[in-house]
Amino acid sequence: xxxxxxxxxxxxxxxxxxxxxxxxxxxxxxxxxxxxxxxxxxxxxxxxxxxxxxxxxxxxxxxxxxxxxxxxxxxxxxxxxxxxxxxxxxxxxxxxxxxxxxxxxxxxxxxxxxxxxxxxxxxxxxxxxxxxxxxxxxxxxxxxxxxxxxxxxxxxxxxxxxxxxxxxxxxxxxxxxxxxxxxxxxxxxxxxxxxxxxxxxxxxxxxxxxxxxxx
Length: 215
Hints:
There is one protein chain. The chain is α/β, with parallel strands linked by helices and 215 residues long. The relative contact order is 0.13. A 4-stranded parallel sheet has the order 3-2-4-5, with helices on both faces. The chain has a 3-stranded antiparallel sheet with strand order 1-6-7, with no helix packed on it. The longest helix is centred in the first third of the chain and has 13 residues, at 39-51. The protein contains 8 helices and 7 strands, in the order βαβααβααβαβββαα. α6 (94-103) links the parallel β4 (87-91) and β5 (107-110). The radius of gyration is 22 Å and the shape is elongated. It has helices at residues 9-15, 30-33, 39-51, 68-77, 80-83, 94-103, 146-149, 176-186, and strands spanning 2-6, 21-27, 55-62, 87-91, 107-110, 112-122, 125-128. The chain folds into 2 domains: 2-116, Rossmann fold (3-Layer(aba) Sandwich); 133-200, no CATH class.
């Protein structure tokens, strides 16, 4: 899931400086789980904006704010609430904000900062485990991504600063390569670590990315 957090309210007000009437948009998927853009957060934002002198014309929580056609459909369904607004405030990730901006001629304001693709450890606790690098090495590293979990992104074992299994950059964390070796050892698969991994092929991480499934 995409992990996000709400921007400081003063930053949001600054972005809405020229807008007196605002329509609110949330996301029922990632932003709701992160408690950054669900129903509850839209109500809180409406109260804060009203207290700041803004007129909130309405709101909608879109099932998937990154789904461009769904965004257009849901905005059309809100009719006058959207057309009467000066700006659309989007409490969704950057992909959601861009879906809204592409589907409307209204000024679109991002209310969240998009942080990372995250795993859910438990409710309210998220961890980045993948960097979307386009060249997955998990088959060689026991399902642990060194590109992400190692602050240096090392592909061939720990750096010289690793101390008793701890990372020198973040001493509160285990070294990613220590984790990889330990998991392979426990599974009786430590031998593959003698193989040298080739450098990353950055051509596989082209921006902007796209994928069209064959029918």
